Amino acid sequence: MDTVVAAPRVLLGRAFTGPASVRIRGGRVVEVIQGEPDKLAGVEILDEGFLTPGLVDVQVNGAVGVDFAEVDAAGMRAVAEALPRTGVTRFLPTLITAPLPVVVRQARAVLAASAALPDGVGARPLGVHLEGPFLSPKRPGVHDPALMVEPGPAQVDELLSDDVLRRALRMVTLAPEQPGGLDAVRRLVEAGVLVAVGHSDATGEQTRAAADAGARMVTHLFNAQRPLGHREPGVPGVALVDDRFTLGLIADLAHVGPDVCRLVFNAAGSRVALVTDAVAAAGMPPGRYLLGGAEVLLTEEGVPRSPQGTIAGSALTLDRAVRNIVSVGVDPAAALASATLVPAEVIGESGLGRLAPGAVADLVWWGPDLVPRKVWVDGRVVFDAESDLDRADADNHGYAAAGQ
Questions:
Q1: Which of this chain's residues are annotated to bind substrate (predicted)?
Q2: Which residues contact 394 (CB under 8 A, 6 or more apart)?
Q3: Is 220 annotated as a binding residue?
């Protein structure tokens, strides 16, 4: 039996239309119908707000106390159940720098925990994103420079020769200026992996060469990379003008300030992918948490930091990122496209991040305040604020009120 969800406004691609209805069958969108809905049995009519595709986060290190570097089936389920409260329906578990054998072991554990998720439970993982160890010690951020290695043929082989990892490796962040970097970009791209420039001291010329080799994303624009200069553009300067790059942006307004966030959207809004870079501290009260096995401190400030004071990922939720970007003057449709369509496209998921015939039926009903009220994954309701918020508050995870 079909399910029909109707809303006053519906996000189609990069613009709102409405009123409109979305018809769902077998976990997929069958059609989008323009106009006032038929008030028939089986039609769910949303009386206000708007309907969008589910949010897609391609950089998540953990959440609700769970660090993906040490995840098990129970931990993965906890994250999967928490994320829909923030509008996220698909996410890419991310692992930071560690020795290569450890990275492979951690990735296999992430994939095993993902495979153990029961059908119909929460948001769905999309594979794995390796943010390291092929990074520049000159731009480490919170990563341990002593664990970084050059991406030589043997090191890339170590990743691609593991059959389980190779099939699920969706994204690798690396520094292309490191010895062997451009060859590594080519090999990974040939293997079907999205390559992102990040934790990099690359010049503008080297960043452009990475795009020539097949790199298509920049990880957390402006953070842990050679900065924008008026003569030497560095990584962000080239990324902002080279249409081949999708720009990952942590819009907590701490990693990148409000004016610069607005500047990024003015310059390249159609290529921005909002990400959280969330760590285990996300959705949790102030305290000590882990990132890649290392301790980080979340204070009342709301920004996780290493013991030395370096920003260590974020406690951001993706719905709050959308609201933050709207607050700096970006059109809501553009902000939402940056959390749905753009990240889905950059990782090659044409069936996600859009409401169109054949697409996966991941939907979010938002109130006028841009807070998620109801979320569907594969056509099934996985979060309903009316029934779930009280239980989430009782659990004390905080995601229930993540963006309040």
A1: 142, 223-224, 231, 255, 311-313
A2: none
A3: yes
